[in-house]
Amino acid sequence: MEQKKSVPQLQPTAPKQQRPSSPMPAGTGSDSSERGPVDTGRRQFVTAGLLAGAFVLGVATGQTFPLWRQAPGPTIAADQPLSQEQVERLRQGFLATQTRGISTPTVTGDQRRDAIQRLDLPAAQRQQLVQTLEKPDNQCGVRFVSIQLWDNMAIDGDVVSASACGYTVEVRLGATPTIYEIPLEADNTIALNGVRDGGGGITVGLNVGGQSIPYPPMTTGEIRRIKFDPQ
User: Fold this and answer.
1) Whose CA, among 19, 39, 152, 227, lies 20 to 30 Å from 46?
2) 201 and 98 fall within a common domain
3) 71 occurs within a structural domain
4) Are 127 and 40 within one domain?
5) 3 in a domain, yes or no?
6) One domain, residues 43 and 108
7) Is residue 204 exposed (0-12), middle (13-18) or buried (19+ Cβ within 10 Å)?
8) Tens of pLDDT along 106-139?
9) Which pTM does this prediction carry?
10) How far apart are CA 210 and CA 160, in angstroms?
11) Which residues span the domain enclosing 195?
12) Are residues 222 and 133 in the same domain?
């Protein structure tokens, strides 16, 4: 009885070794060039049938998996804590933007009224905010600023809230930058509040007017005011 050959295991760091050839009868060898035409055709037919079956199964079950999976890319299981040096560099970078404030275009006039209507608020609360902002002596919310927020490290459930002029929006930070229109206080600031730390600090990506702003991690319960320089 012909004994089965064991397939040698490939070593990750060693070059691939070619197995020594051994004479075998035509049509029974492992080399496709040694197979008979009938055997080769049968193998091709079986392979095609398996692939077609996998496709039909995917359609029937609603799965969208590919027939050949690509190797998964690198992933981050959890936030890796930043070094003290990195945190200090972000802190100093952010403080540098706060000397005069972050330069940004703002929304006023009719566009401001449109921005108020787009605020994520129940109708009654939105109307109450409109009445407050429309008071002649009101200096809050005269301008609106547009900011982008996201998690610039691992996506682990970090949550912040942005607030000003009685308006608050809670933001679950994801991988994709999301735009938020926020009214500015009379001193041209908004407050960013740390709501939930998913691990390793609340890591925030902040973009204003196309500028990426260095922003150090926050802790749960921390309130940080961000100053703007309206243009």
Assistant:
1) 19
2) yes
3) no
4) no
5) no
6) no
7) buried
8) 888 788 888 888 888 888 888 888 888 888 888 8
9) 0.64
10) 21
11) 84-230
12) yes
Residues 91, 53: one domain? no
Residue with tokens 């006039």: 109
Q: Judge if 40 and 109 occupy the same domain.
A: no
For residues 170 and 127, state if they share a domain: yes
**What is the token pair recorded at 228?**
């703007």
> Using one digit for the tens of pLDDT, what is the confidence trace for 147-164?
999 999 989 999 999 999
Number of domains in the chain: 2
Three-state secondary structure along the chain? CCCCCCCCCCCCCCCCCCCCCCCCCCCCCCCHHHCCHHHHHHHHHHHHHHHHHHHHHHHHHCCCCCCCCCCCCCCCCCCCCCCHHHHHHHHHHHHHHCCCCEEECCECHHHHHHHHHHCCCCHHHHHHHHHHHCCCCCCCCCCEEEEEEECCCCCCCCEEEEEECCEEEEEECCCCCEEEEEECCCCCEEEEEEEECCCCCECCEEEECCEEECCCCECCCCEEEEEEEEC
Residue-level pLDDT at 42 = 54
- Residue 188, in any domain of the structure: yes
For 99-109, give one letter per residue: b (16+ CB within 10 A) or e.
eebbebebbee
The pLDDT score that the predictor gives to residue 11 is 47
Q: pLDDT by residue (tens digit) across 37-95?
A: 545 555 555 444 544 444 344 434 343 333 222 223 233 334 467 899 999 999 999 99
Residue 200 in domain: yes
**Which of the four pLDDT bands, split at 50, 70 and 90, describes residue 218?**
very high
